[in-house]
Structures are given as structure tokens and as C-alpha cells.
Specification:
5 helices; Cyt_P450_E_grp-I; alpha+beta; two-stranded antiparallel sheet
Length: about 190
């Protein structure tokens, strides 16, 4: 959210509207937070946690888009490439949670379900993983502001979006400020 303060603010405004600013979110609030839901899906799409799919072995000769794929070949889906397909996601390099909102507010683009894999070997923990990321995002955005650090002259030092190239591609370390949004937010955190 450090990189996208306008998206952070919009999600926080929605959280404040639904929660009244005096409690933490729960799963019962999820349906009332459509923009936060879009932030979740865009986060998963914009940089998939697992950039490449799990290898699959082709059990019989196949043809795909005119390409012959011999039996016993290993196929590895490029999830990142799929999530950046301009035919599916307009402006795919941009972080645009609104893309998942229905028309006319958004673009009604499809959810990036492929981030959890494909076919019979789709991630069995996808619902648990998605729910955990959602509740963590909801709680963090309810009580904290995320902002860039400042240099000696008070100028924002925006971090770069850099990720490790590995089977799992987490972000590289970066500096940011994390501060309570208000005295009430501080109290909510202290009560945990």
C-alpha cells in the first residue's frame, strides 16, 4: 500500500464507513467491503506469490494452439505472464483494484483464479489462504497507515517494487513507515 496511497485511502474509507471506526473487521463484514475484496484480488494478480505454476506431466500426446506436446513432456504454466495478459487485463502492469468492480464503476475483469493453480492440482488451501490474506489486509488497513520514509529534506523515498526470483517470489526488503491511523486505532491494537 506504500506504493499506492490512493488505493490505501479508498480501502480505508470503505472500512471506516462499514466499521464505524470503532472496531476491527471480521469475516462477517467481507460482503460489505467490495473495494477491499478488489484490493485482495489485485494484490494476488499484480504480483503472484508463486510466479510459475507447479510442473505438470502430459499423460498423452496433445496439441495446443497448433503446437505438438509429446506425451511425458513437463509443462510449467507462467502464472505471472497469465496475470499480465493484456487481452484479459487492460493496463496489466498498473495496480488497479477497480478492474474487478462490476460495470459501470469498474471494468468487470475476471478474478485471477489462476494464481492458485489449475485443474485437478489447484491449491487445496486456496480458500484458507485467500481468507487469511483478506482478514490480515482488513485489520492492517483499519488501524495503520503505510507510507514511504522521508529523506533528510523531508522528501518521500518511495520504495521500488522488487521481488525475489524464486519458486515463491516475496518482495525484497524495503523501508516504510507504519503508523496508527488515530488514537482509537492505537487503542484497538493495544486491546489485542
Amino acid at each position: 500500500m506504500v506504493l499506492f496511497p490512493d488505493k490505501q485511502r479508498k480501502a480505508q474509507d470503505e472500512l471506516d464507513r462499514v466499521l464505524g471506526g470503532d472496531r476491527l473487521p471480521s469475516f462477517e463484514d467481507r460482503e460489505s467491503l467490495p473495494y477491499l475484496e478488489c484490493v485482495l484480488w489485485e494484490t494476488l494478480r499484480w504480483h503472484p506469490v508463486v510466479p510459475l505454476g507447479v510442473p505438470h506431466r502430459v499423460s498423452e500426446d496433445d496439441t495446443y494452439c497448433g503446437y505438438h506436446i509429446p506425451k511425458n513432456s513437463t509443462i510449467i504454466a507462467n502464472t505471472t505472464c497469465i496475470m499480465m495478459d493484456e487481452a484479459v487485463y487492460k493496463e496489466p502492469s498498473d495496480f488497479l483494484p477497480e478492474r474487478f468492480l462490476p460495470l459501470p464503476e469498474g471494468r468487470d475483469e475476471p478474478r485471477p483464479n489462476a494464481v492458485f493453480g489449475y485443474g485437478r492440482r489447484i491449491c487445496p488451501g486456496r480458500y484458507l489462504g485467500e481468507a487469511n490474506v483478506w482478514i490480515a489486509m482488513a485489520n492492517l488497513l483499519t488501524v495503520f497507515n503505510f507510507s514511504p520514509t522521508k529523506d533528510a529534506n523531508g522528501i518521500d523515498q518511495m520504495p521500488k517494487a522488487e521481488f525475489y526470483d524464486a519458486f515463491v517470489g516475496p518482495p525484497k526488503p524495503f523501508y516504510c513507515n507504519i503508523s496508527p491511523r488515530s488514537p482509537l486505532a492505537r487503542t484497538l491494537v493495544e486491546q489485542l
